[in-house]
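Format notes (please read before filing issues)

Several people have asked whether sequences and structure tokens are stored in separate files. They are not. Every record keeps both together, in the order shown below: the sequence lines, then the token lines. Line labels are part of the format and must not be stripped during preprocessing.
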Amino acid sequence: MEKEQFSKILAKLEQLDESLNQVSRGMDDALQPEPEADWDAAKPEPLKDFLDRCFW
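Then the structure lines:
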């Protein structure tokens, strides 16, 4: 009986370990820095031209 209970507990601990690993990987992915945005490419052309004339 003790061996059976030990096996069940061990299986549960392995499941918990895998769940924690998945959460940890998800947190690592969430903490990765966002790539730098290319702000000039994101602006519509008329706005980009206007800003270029005003500030450059």
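For reference, the curators noted about this record: Residues 1-32 form one domain. The first helix runs from residue 2 to 30.
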